Structure formats: C-alpha cells, structure tokens
Amino acid sequence: MEKRDEQAFMCRQEGEANLRAATEVNAVSASLTPPAIMPIQLELFPGRACVLEAKPATIRSTARKEPNRRDGVSGGGTQRQTIELTGETLFGPAEKTPSGREAHKGGTRKRGNEAGQGVGGGHSTVEARDNRAEGRAATFIKRTKQGKAAGLPPQGKAQPRRKPAERKAPVRLDNARKLQRTLYRVAKRQPRRRFTLLYDKVCRQDILREAWHRVKFNKGAAGVDQIDIDAIREYGEERFLREVQQELRSRGYRSSLVRRVHIPKPGQPGKTRPLGIPTVKDRVVQMAVKIVIEPLFEADFIRCSFGFRPKKTARMALKAIVDSVNEEYLQVVDVDLKSYFDTIDHELLMRLVERRVGDVQILRLIRAWLKAGVMEEGKVTHPDRGSPQGGVISPLLSNIFLHEVDRRWCRSDGVATGAVRLVRYADDMVLLARTEPQAQMAWVQLQREFAELHLAVNQEKSRLTTLQEGFAFLGFEFRKAPGRMLLMWPRTKACRNIRQRVREVVRSFPSNGPVEAVIRKLNPVLNGWCTYFRVGNSNRTFHKVDWAVRSELQLWLRRKHQCAWGTARGRWSYHVLHERCRLYRMVGKVSHLDGLRRTPSEEDDQSRMREIRTSGSMRGGRKRTFARRACLLLYRVPSKTSSSKMVSFVRSAPSQFAVLSSDPCLRR
What we know:
The chain is α+β, with helices and mostly antiparallel strands. Helix content is 42%, strand content 9%. The chain has helices at residues 2-14, 60-63, 100-105, 175-189, 199-202, 205-218, 229-235, 237-249, 280-298, 314-326, 346-353, 360-371, 394-409, 436-452, 492-507, 515-533, 539-561, 565-571, 574-580, 602-613, 621-636, 640-652, 654-660; strands at 40-41, 49-50, 88-89, 92-93, 258-264, 272-277, 331-336, 374-376, 379-381, 421-425, 428-433, 463-466, 471-473, 476-479, 487-490. The chain has a 4-stranded mixed sheet with strand order 6-5-8-9, with no helix packed on it. A hairpin with a 2-residue loop joins β10 and β11 (428-433). α17 (539-561) crosses α18 (565-571). Mean pLDDT is 75; it is low at 16-55, 62-95, 101-105, 107-142, 615-619, 633-647 and 653-668.
C-alpha cells in the first residue's frame, strides 16, 4: 500500500496525470469538504482509482439542512428522490474508450441484444466510484428508495414469516386419479376413438385398492353369500384384493347372483322400490371397471345431465331450472319414466357402450352383470331387460342409455339446439319452453324418442303444465305467479318423510335413556335434510318441521317423566331444547339460490310508501296493518331513500309509531 501511495505521489509531482484514467464517473463527492487530491489512475491496477486521502465523515446534524449532498443531489438527500446522472465527467463528456477487458478482446462490449453503451449497465449511486469501469459514461437511471431502505418508519404491523414446517405440500394425485385424467383428455381430443386396452388397468393393484376404499366408504349390506364389509376386514383386506386380482388375471372371475329386497319409498306409505344388492366382490370389480371407463363417457356427456356424475349435484340442476325460468321459460313438460331401471334394453345398451369401449373382456364383464340372476325370497330369475338398481355400475349405464336423449336436445357445450331446454337428473327430467305450442311439440318428439329406446312413459305423472300451476322436481315445488318472482319450497311428501324419520329415531330409544343421546342421533338427520332444502324459500317449512321435532321430543320426555302434556311443553320449551340441549334448529339456515333472491328496488319502496300514506282514511285494524308494514320497511330495508321517506312519515304520525316501535318482533 505504501508503494502504491508513493508512486501516485510521484506521478502527481511530475504532472504526468493520466487524463484517460483520472475521469470521475459520478459528480463531485458528497462530503462537506472536497478531497484535497483527485483520484489518480494507477498503472499497476488498470481500471481502478485510489484516493490518497480519506474523505471526512458527514456531519449528521447538518446533513439534512445542507442542500449539497452526495452524488450532487440537492434538496434533502436521496430518500424517495429521483437520481439522475448526466453522463458527463469532470473533464467534459466521457470518451468512448474501451476498458481493460474490452481492449484485451479488441472490441467494445455489448450488453443484451445489440444494446447500446450504458444500457443495462447502471450502477447504484452508493457504489464505490473506484469500482466503476474506465472511460464509461454514467448511465441515466431513475431509482427510488422506499420503506426501510429510505429510513422511513414501518407502515402497519409486520406479518410474521411462515415457517417451512407450516407450508402445505402440494396435493399429489393418486395413480387412479392420474389414470382417469389421462383417459378423459384422450377421449376429449378424439371423440370417435374406441379404447381396446382397458382390462389390464382393471387388474392393477392400485385400481383395485381404490375400488375397495370406495366400496368400504359406501358400506352397504351383504349379498347372497352373506359376506359383508366387516367380514372382509376380518379375513384381511390385502389378502382379499390379491385373490380378486388373481381371478381377474386368470380369467376365472364369475359374477354372483343379485339379492333383491324391497325398500319403502320415502313419503309414500305402502309403496316399495326394488333394490338389487350384489356381493362385496362383485361391487369391488364393478367399481374398478367404473373407475376405468367412466372418464371415456364423461368426455361425451352434456351439461344438461346432473345425476350420478362426478362434480355434479342436484343443486346445479335446480340452479339450471331457476335460470331458465328467469329467462321467461314458463311452459313446462314434466316427464316421468315408468320403471326405468327395470326396462333398459340390454342389446341396445351394449351397442351404446361399444361406441367407446372396444376391450372384449370389459364388454363380457358388463354383459355378465346385466344377465346375472336375481334371487328374491329363495327364487332365482334371469331377466332379459333392466339393470339392477343398487349396483355400483348401474347409474353409469343409465346415463349412457339416456345420453341419446340428451344429444337430441342439447349440443356438446350444453346449449339447447332449439327453443326448448332440457334439465335431467338420472331418470327425472323437465323440458322448459317459452310458448305452449313449443312445449306440445317437444312433448310429442320426446315420446317418439322414448319409443325408439324401448322405454315406457308414465302417463299418469307426466303432464304439460305452466309455472303458474306449478310442478315438482327433485323434492321441491316450483311456482311463479304472474308479475312475481319464482318460489320453490320442499314438497309435502318430503316434509312427511322427515317427520317419519324423526319419529323412528326418537322412538328407537327406551324411555329410561338420556335425552342427550337422542339428540345426538337426531341432529345428523335434521342437518342433512336442512342442508339439501335450504336453497329454496323454505323458512316457513322449517318452522313447521322444528315444531314437529320439538313436539316429538316433548312427547318422549312426557312418557319418560310421567307428567302432563302441558307440563312437558313448559318444562322442555324452545329455549331448553335448542339452546341447552343443543337440538338442531333449521330456522335461520336458509341460503337462497342466486335467481330466487333479489333486493327490492326503489320503485317498489315508493309504491309501498304511497300505499301506506294513502291509508289515512282507514280505521281500526286495517290502518294498524299498514302502519306495521311501514315499521317493517323502516327496520328491514337498508335504503337511504326509503329511510329518509320513512323518517318523514314517522314524524307525521308519532303516536302510532311510538307504540309499534316498541314491539321487539319488529326490530328483528
């Protein structure tokens, strides 16, 4: 270091300063006292400059008051200020002289894609000047210091950094889901392709394991072999799956008989529905086949179908009806098929399946399940039509069969091909039209299509109707009066069904049992029913169902404590059952669909206020009724215009509203 200082001092004394290397890239120094000696370029280190004397420290007390700061920036420093460099040196404009590395290579360096000198090569103003390249002009840059770099106080409360352990790992799909996605994408890109290599995927261990998990989750009763889910667990799940895989690979698998039972129809006392229950092994193999072939047909299914499809729910079907009604589709064709699952033609269904599935082994399995015998009360029959309702693969086969109807009414993107819209959930379907002739033509055409598919229409339940008369679909009653908005609420049959289920749950407990156990078993039933029917105008129905549930519990408690009916109702009242005992309450759980709820417009408020104001000539109860409506409008309509009009109206009749405003029911 001493040698370098001595050599620099001698160069200064002899006046042999190197003008090319002694350029100062930035402006003058930011210190209060300028350096006594200018930087000198040393031959020992080309491209670098060395300052002989250290710069005096900046006085902080006067730094903010002094206009001249470092880098020649005036006006309070660099905090949130724009820094502009002029590109000039101390001795005039900078010369385009190559640096040491550029001179060695024999050319000027270019940055980026044919960028000019200085582009992309800007340096911060805080960077040491003796580290800058030799002979380069300073780059024009605009940089702003903000936040902590500018010395400003922090804004708000800093958020703590997440620890690495708290970060959630990305969700990885299992092999079965990856296979389904691959098959779906290929089938979507190639609408006419037939897949001929599918049986080996059904025999895979991961597919069979996923099928077993789904069957185990669905539970279900035992088949004709009297082996249920618990028996398979005791036998060994892995051992059971290995045996099934070995049977499939050796082509030794044979389908078993289907046990038929009759279950009561909900809300229809005395009527039953036939249900076919396959064995657990058949359900696992059917689920494996469904996992493999379902993506192939999902690529072809249309959006107007919502039943028994992945990521499709009954609420979506209800939303489609509400949207169509709001678009003035008021003519309805209510369609009901007669014993649909028992009347499916096997040969026609197999031809529809062969459009996508070309694997002979898969087709043999599906045909064997369709032709499997049915055991009912010890008697075995072999039907030539229908698919057992209750089998794992039956819903998929039913959608494949009715897809032919969907194709004639909707395009692949879900848009109706004509002036009539179709909404289908499994075998329940509704046609919506704007005019009565369109609805009649649609009904004639639909009957012709059902005849081609060898399906029978229930003429007693199928009908042509309008929204003003109303119709039923998926447990809801739809009705729309002229000039009014659409209303939908649970059907009487559904209310009768939930009351019957509540009665069965409550009376299944002995009288000496605790009421907490009864409520614990009753709450999931009420929660499931309320979750489904909460999307409509169901608040009035929920009031009735809540009252029926409390009455059933009070009757059970009356028998338990041997007291009078009035005593039981007073002792276990609304407050005790719902708040202390935590009985599920449906009132207040309504969540309307988008098309069912609307905000009252200002014109509606004005017409209602005009009606209330003209009630001055009325007397007695009618005048009090209009005053009560005014109070409801005041407390329940959050409109500034309506509120101001209501205030003026209340001031005009203070005595009336002094009494009504004290009513706690009006303030809810």
